[in-house]
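Sequence in, structure out.
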Amino acid sequence: MSTVTVCGHVALDYIFQVPRHPEPDHSIYIQRMEKHYGGGAANITVGISRLGGSSELVAAVPADFAHTDYGQYLQKQGVRLRVTPFPGDLPRAYIFNDPQHRQITYFSWGVSEHLPRAVPEAETVHLAPVHPDFACAMADRASFLGFEPGQDLPRYSAPQLIQVLDRTDLLFVNQYEIRTIEKMTGLDLDSLARRMDVVLTRGQEGCQVHHRGECTVIPAVPATVVDPTGAGDAHRAACWAGLMRGLEMEEACRLANLAASLVVQQRGAQSGLPDWDTLLRCAEQNSRAEKI
């Protein structure tokens, strides 16, 4: 694969630190608020590009996006923009973190609601969280399909989800998502793993890789968490970057775990994304630490 076409959201992240998540009908004061570049698809394309891979971004954006600070930033990062302009605003994510790094996110779709109208041709595709109608159309056009339903999973109907899964080669899910997929489709993890490669992320327990009939558990890399936003996107980016360099799935996912551990040590989904040399250097340091 020479280029990964990543489809999904470009967004602005508003990240809030709160002392605790309030109960219904209660209020809480905000200790800290920051605005960062975000959107799952944008985060992944930036991550792939920083790691030396070739990525392109398919998304719905406001009409003047290419000339905005965010649009110009993405291009400077080496991301090829295959975006379609529509009237409206960028999606916005309002992310609330408590001291235990538990997150509650509210997402406003903005122009992403229009994405089903813009379905391009592509070879290697990663479907980040995206409109289900678009996912179904894009799945029919991809030669190799990676699928990450993510927070948009509740928007899928069972037939839509089955349609995309029938064409998926590489599935990225967490434990909640795999349970939801089983409830919606009747397909459990074992059934899916017989049909495609599956990377199941398990938080502090690392990830479980189902590849060619084998299951490998890859431990997480210890990290001092500052902000968990974007950890999953960094994981996807590093996995793709490793595969593009010819690594086996398990080794690519080891680097993916490491990339996720680096991102959570800074605020914002893109702030801590490493380049390839940094990732390898950290991998070597981590390997030495494990032997001590």
